[in-house]
Amino acid sequence: MPGARCRRLCRTYYSEGRRSAAHLPVSTTGPDMTDVIVIGAGPAGAFAAHRAADLGARTTLVARDEFGGMAANDGPVPVRTLAHAARLLREAHQLDRYGITGDGFRLDYPRLLARVREVVHDVRTQSDLRDRVDGLGVTVHEHAGTASFVDPHTVETSGGLRLHGDKIILCTGGVSRPLTVPGAELTHTHSDAWALREVPPSMLVIGGGATGAQVASIFTAFGSRVELFEKGPRILPTEDDDVSAVVAEAFRERGMVVRENFDAIESFDKTSDGVLMHFTQNGAPASAEAALVVVAIGWTADTIGLNLAAAGVATDERGFVRVDAYQRTSVPHIFAAGDVTGRLMLVPQASQSGFIAATNAVRGPAVPMWDQVSPIGSFTDPEYAQVGLTETKARKEHDVIVATVGLDAATRPVIDGRTTGFCKLIVDRTSNQILGCHVVGERAVETTQLAAVAMTARMRVEELARIPLSFPTYAGIVGRAAYIATRRLERDAGRDLNEAS
What we know:
Structural class: alpha/beta
Shape: globular
Largest sheet: 7 strands, mixed
Number of helices: 16
Distance between the termini: 42 Å
């Protein structure tokens, strides 16, 4: 089976030493030709470079900026650091509730940003992946500038680097999708928001997906008056309906204005205090003003400047690089991995796709990407996370039962004073397989990993329910939901037997 074969290959990532070039097909390229050029040093590129070198290929890794890419320098690492600061502020507000008195707390934003830089530096310099890449002899060019194809085998960078490669792997990631309305130049991206020198008194966040929700939640905790705009009927549109509803309600309780179902944004104007946004809702004109406007309406491939036409690499209708199951582009010797392909745009999936792309670039196209359980979560307040199918989708495809446990009925959230949220488990009534898990609340992202492991192992829900999870923990709520689902299945089975008799 392809999945089993891929898992065996992934295990070699940790067990193989560097192979000699004799394991590669005989190369007829000139002395200045590199076996594999990897463009982009984020998770996909770093894993691709490591894998290619581990298989014996002479590998060159080209980074426009620093090693680590968006994930380390502008994505999950700095965002999670800011979210941790927001968590500390929330905890500080509870001190009096637990008999701890103090003189009050305030946010020193410049000091927080200094801490973010410290964390980013430490993650980048202490990464064992970087050590492994260097240890395998990969030639790494940081701060090389934007890479561009000269021809299908040649790339040059704005920093003056020129390379020739037998195989090339594109891992350039993605960028924020811009708004195209008058005055859009007055708006900012989430990257700009993380780089602010001070907390703005007010903020409009356009886009109620994962990125917009994180920006809105963090700056609400920091004291900004935030309005979150989502054009669709609900924020977090890819999440389970109940997740969207509970998170939106919690946002409003924390003082955020959440506007859903507006028609369109018309324009932006500069004002003495910031930016005025003109929009329509229910066919009527409306406006909103804030010191800062952040646009988070989606993600697109970062291919500007790559000159894909010179290599003949095709993109799809959304602008992402088109790849097949082996991560090959329309040009057989050019591969792509990570966000630039538009597939599930998360760090673990990017890393795996980089591994697969490099394996196929060096050994030939033999290993396809495999279907996998992919937990997704966000560090908002409250956190939310999911793995598997939403309830709506599951009901369309399966006969299901749904077990939901509120955090206010679980011991650890009560102890911590964090009772907002729930855990929902979706189970196939026929096979007893877990189809999905959705959690809102404190430590939701970590809690959902338990369900992801159970689903990957194809555990039946009653098997999960029998695991004696530690008490009191947040993860225990998954076991409790599994127990409720199991009891319901048993009652239904008993009723079926009675009816049959």
